[in-house]
Amino acid sequence: MTGAPPGTGRSEDPLGGDPRVRSYFGDRYPVLEQYARLLATTGVEWGVIGPRESGRLWERHLLNCAAVVPFLAPGSVADVGSGAGLPGIVIAAMKPEREVVLIESMARRATWLGEAAEALGLTRVEVIRARAEEIRSLRVASVVARAVAPLSRLINLCQGLVDDGGEMLFLKGRAAGDEVREASRELERRGLSAEAFEATTVEGVQATTIVRVWSVVGRAGKERLES
Q1: pLDDT, tens only, 110-167
Q2: What percentage of the chain reaches a pLDDT higher than 90?
Q3: Domains of the chain
Q4: For the whole prediction, is pTM greater than 0.85?
Q5: Nearby residues of 194 by Cβ (< 8 Å), 6 or more positions away
Q6: Fewer CB within 10 Å: N-end or C-end of the chain?
Q7: In angstroms, how far is CA 51 from the centroid of its own chain?
Q8: CA angle 187, 191, 195 (to 5 degrees)
Q9: What strands, in cross-sheet order, belong to the sheet with 192-199?
């Protein structure tokens, strides 16, 4: 997969090349910069991201996703409904030592994700073309998802992927607190607890709202609750 030449389209994005962004990502910035170019070129061509997004990739997408990284549990990560690799590829780019599984049901998107990961040199990324609920053998420390479904449906899709002691981290909008309240019965039924909080990255960039979900009963207790 080839992207545009360095600098192509960056003038449209006010944070492209911004010193604050470079400082935030440190030595991983070149990989994120290359990923931004892929999103703005082949990502748009393949339809994994809308053409209007290319001028706001850093704030709306890359930094928004990067905010979740400090809250990941140690170990492997699965990104459910990965789409354009947000947040999965951002996580893999920032933490190349982590095993990151990108779960995407649409063939075109799954193919693009595989080619993008290879182009970025992310050797510990695996792409699985499937729906999360179809996967039976995968267990990870952290499950992440962004703009996939309401919270009550997300926990139904994702809980089976979480290993004991792991958690789910969902990137949400400003109504995240309402979603947590609305899902309270489902959370209780599954032996889960949840909290919504805001995470920041670069000064002046809007904080990311994250819903963290974790088990309060363990896998054996969960199975008893669901039986």
Answers
A1: 999 999 999 999 999 999 999 999 999 999 999 999 988 899 999 999 999 999 999 9
A2: 83
A3: 10-226 (3.40.50.150)
A4: yes
A5: 151, 180, 183, 187, 211, 212, 213, 214
A6: C
A7: 20
A8: 50
A9: 125-128, 100-103, 77-80, 140-146, 162-172, 208-215, 192-199
